[in-house]
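Supplementary Text 2. Reproducibility record for the structural model of the 418-residue chain.

All settings were left at their defaults, and a single model was retained for analysis rather than an ensemble. We include the record here because the model underlies the residue-level annotations in Supplementary Table 4.
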Amino acid sequence: MSLVKKPTTGMKDITPKEMAIRDYVLEEIRKTYTKFGFCHIETPCVEHIENLSSKQGGENEKLIFKILKRGEKLDLSSRSEADLVDSGLRYDLTVPLARYYSNNEANLPKPFKALQMGNVWRADRPQKGRFRQFMQCDIDIIGEPTNLAEIELCMATTTLLSSLGFNGYKVRINDRRILKAMADYSGFNVENYDEIYIILDKMDKIGLDGVKEELIGAGYDEGAVKKYVGLFDSLSASDKPLDTLQGLVNEFDEGGIENLKEIFAGLSGVLSASAELVFDPTLVRGMSYYTGTIFEIEMNELNCSVAGGGRYDKMIGRFTGRDECACGFSIGFERIITIMLEKDMAVPGQIKKEAFLIEKGIEGERLGEIIKAAQEKRANGNIVLLARMNKNKKFQKQQLMEDGYTDFTDFYKDPLKN
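Retained model, structure tokens:
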């Protein structure tokens, strides 16, 4: 059987050029987030299967890479998945963080501000910009019950995007309690909320009329659908949508509207000039573990989301039996890298790279002198590559220039050529 050169479907090899950008972005993430008091932690890539399948990960639970039991524990004659599988590759960093906090709570400060950067895996259908293995970068605040957590998360994430050179993005924000209040006001039954949210989440693709048609087509009362759609019409026509919404659904709201008003007030005048903060009543976020504020950041020029998150106050309680307030924001690391590569963005502050090209046949003593000269330059902080000179030196230098080398020194065995 012949070996396969290409990576497994949905995964990729990373070139030196892309790796340089990834390293730069990861370092910028560390520098920026630590300024906001976030502590860098790490969790294993393998999690207990019961944690991953706890009905908190939404559609991602259908995409778990499951791992078979090992050794004598594995009984291939069994037809039950529970007898075959006891763990899986993590599909996000939030569930592992909840387990981490539950296991280490006694030794952690409160509130606890965590930074995680690591690969996750989803058995998804691969497409441009979407892989089965990809890097996630999350910041989370555990133990802060007020919306100071949301404000800090938005500040840190927008500061990071600005430091990476991005301009013109929109911070869309909503609250799951507002979604519930709007559905209550319209007369929908609580058991149907999840399906209603799924249809609402298609608003950017099918429009308000499309949402109306799909809800009616799904068998919902036409009067309730018209009342629901009318809410969005009223909000789109209002200069102060939160005030308008409060006047309509206040008796059904459980604090979501006032929460957003406070967040808007806290962020007013302190966000980057390139960031626009907007209330978006159509924002849903698919994860079933969100309990309050939800947010996404959308690039204006690309019309795509590059970050998202929200409050999940019930997840840790699944581990400890005691609910603990928690809120997190995750940037789309792979999407940001793709954008930077497509724009051919250069990594700022890169050290000059120099290549010493050495002709074959140079005597040992002369070779030692060249190596010593390279070491002296490296000791002074320079990047120096030692390489044998190819016959096609022009092509060799072209390849090195593509890898960022700008200076070349040629060493020949004939002293007169040097």
